[in-house]
Amino acid sequence: MSSQKLLEISKDLAIPVKKLEDMLFILKDGEAVDNNYLLTRIGVSRNALNKAKEKLSDLLEPASATTKLSQMGLNAIGVIEDGYIAQDQLWEFLKDANYKKVLALLNKYGDKRPSQNRKYDQFTATPETTALRTGLLNFLGDIRGKRLLFLGDDDFTSVGVASLGLASHIEVLDVDKRILNSIKSIAEAERFTITTTSSDLRQRLPSRLLGKFDLVFTDPPYTTSGMGLFVSRAIQALDPDNHASRIYACYGNSDRARERYLPIQELFTDLGLMMRWIFDGFNRYVGVESIGNSSTLFILDVTPKTKPQAKLTHNDEIYTNS
Questions:
Q1: 149-181 in b/e burial notation, b at 16+ Cβ within 10 A?
Q2: Which of 3, 145, 175, 268 is most buried (most C-beta within 10 Å)?
Q3: Which residues contact 305 (CB under 8 A, 6 or more apart)?
């Protein structure tokens, strides 16, 4: 497989070369790979995956529910060096003993996760993603001794964080009482301390939460208005005396519509937030093929100019299914 061909496909389809290389790396052993698994691993939309497979059709077995290199394809790609690292393998360093502990806990209570309610743009993040979130928060020093607020938590990230026993306070706010009840039942069974609050962020943030937290984590609706509202509420919840407070925010979109990230980046700037880190494809989901079953994780630091939107309207459509 020539690098020139991958470059041409990348230019034509707006898919990063790295993701095409990852695809071939996954297929290199000659085994048939389920298409859903493949698109989740490499983080592209189903449409983009299908187009890439069309471009590489001379190297693949006929199209089906799986993808497999043909003998010609196996001969063409040659031997991929053992040192090659696929994009999603960059996070292997987080998979320590704590990661395994959190993952086992999440799998233990997998049946406690309510079914997705598309009214609220709920997507199911994989347990591995939630465990990685916990590991990253801990690695960056954002758990020990800190007060954490989760604005929406259908992925049970609060449960993973609570299992480490390092935070001084953990609070979950969600509009879906099913999620809060599940989190409460897990916390009671495991003797975790997690406070839950039922509230709709389109209304005012509960007064007792204003200015009380060091960190806010949110995976909001993937609309500009939804992100603006959730992140503005997060700013309101942050302790103004903590100049090192920050926000973790997720946003999903496909590589073929990357211009949709621009309003989000502009929003963060308008809110006076600094984008400390941007981790493309960090979050992985099930059943969201339109965004490649993945989303970007933004880590946002406050600055002296940080402030919520001047007018937090309650009537804007914040959900994609509204």
A1: bbbbbbbbbbbbbbbbeebeebbbbbbbeebbe
A2: 268
A3: 272
Tokens in use for 16? 């990063």
Contact 114, 154 (CB under 8 A): yes
pLDDT of residue 277: 93
Mind listing the pLDDT tens digit for each residue in 34-61? 999 998 888 888 888 999 999 999 999 9
Q: Which residues contact 200 (CB under 8 A, 6 or more apart)?
A: 175
Rounded Cα–Cα distance for residues 24 and 6 (Å): 10
User: What sign results for the dihedral spanned by CA atoms 258, 262, 268, 274?
Assistant: positive
Answer whether 276's CB lies under 8 Å from 245's CB. Answer: no
- Supply the pLDDT for residue 113: 87
Contact, 138 vs 163, CB < 8 A? no
Q: Which domains does the chain possess? A: 3-84 (1.10.10), 91-301 (3.40.50.150)
Mean pLDDT calculated for residue range 114-135: 82
Q: Which two tokens stand for residue 6?
A: 């991958």
CA dihedral 297, 301, 305, 311 (to 10 degrees): 40
pTM above 0.70? Answer: yes
